[in-house]
Amino acid sequence: MAAVIATIATLAACHRAPEKSADLWLGGDVNLGDAGKTQLQDIASMVQGAVGIVNLEGPVAERLPQDHLRLWNAVPALSELSALNVRVAGIANNHAGDAGADGQEQTARHLRDNGIVPAGGTAGVAFLPVNGMLVAVTEHDLTQKVPPNLEAELATARQHSDVLVASFHVTGPPSYLPRPELQRAVEIAYHAGANVIVAHGTHALGPVERRSHAVIAWGLGNVVFACDCTQEEDAMLLRVTVQRDKAVSAEVLPLRAGIDNRRAEPASEANAIFDLLEAIGSSKLSRQENRASF
């Protein structure tokens, strides 16, 4: 009888439905200004239809007076994000208040009108159903250091989701080395159960790391920036496949960021980006032409 039960159990395991998975892509700083619908179209082939998550630098608003550096994104420009299957946009960053005190609420409303869920700031956690799983996306601005309630917020988001993506915006001079506040925030996120952890804001690349249940990108760099207020063109997209409580695969997709209204496009020298990432302490990369897994 024991042998029969064991055989039945084995057959049941063989016919068990495969575990659900979701493909995500993550990009760094996106500032669209009032540019046309061409800044992002060249990266569609890179992300291959995965669900997109980006940091939207600056509010969605009418044109802002340029009496000092202020960033904004025109409402019609959001169609570029929708066309790339961007489903979540972080709005917690050091330019979130550039359109005034109610700028975040207006930005969140415009994003939702375009089928994009806002994350961070007044919007809180973004919950996104993807292929039968619930993905939670958080975004926190570290400009004023690590929020005191970060651990509790992330633990609650993880408790109510299958997968947790934690995104951090950090300001400071471009540097390949993570700032102390980012190091602390990443450790908190990892121990809270985050499966994908990314950083952006200094406009510079950072190492990529695989650690147990999580993958970490310490600096994604820019995607597009409508002004010439940053000159950092070396960047990357992160494409990951996630299952419940784990990241099962991750790829670096080298990018030439679109600065001052230029198009973002695949980097022409992908190996130079890979060499840089490994030189600054990344996990070992397995290279396949214009992408690398880790």
Tell me briefly what this model is.
The chain is an alpha/beta fold and 294 residues long. Helices cover 22% and strands 32% of the residues.
**What is the global morphology?**
globular
**Computed Rg:** 19 Å
Helix-and-strand structural type: alpha/beta
Query: What is the CATH domain class?
Result: Alpha Beta
CATH superfamily: Metallo-dependent phosphatases
Note the quaternary state here. single chain
Separation of the first and last Cα atoms: 46 Å
Order of helices and strands: HEHEHEHEEEHEHEEEEEEEEHEE
CATH second-level architecture: 4-Layer Sandwich
What is the overall pLDDT average? 93
Question: Unreliable segments (pLDDT under 50, ≥5 consecutive)?
Answer: none
Tally of separate helices: 7
Overall domain count: 1
- Which percent range fits the helix content? 10-25%
Q: How many runs of DSSP E, i.e. beta strands?
A: 17
Strand content: 25-35%
| Major β-sheet annotation | 11 strands, mixed
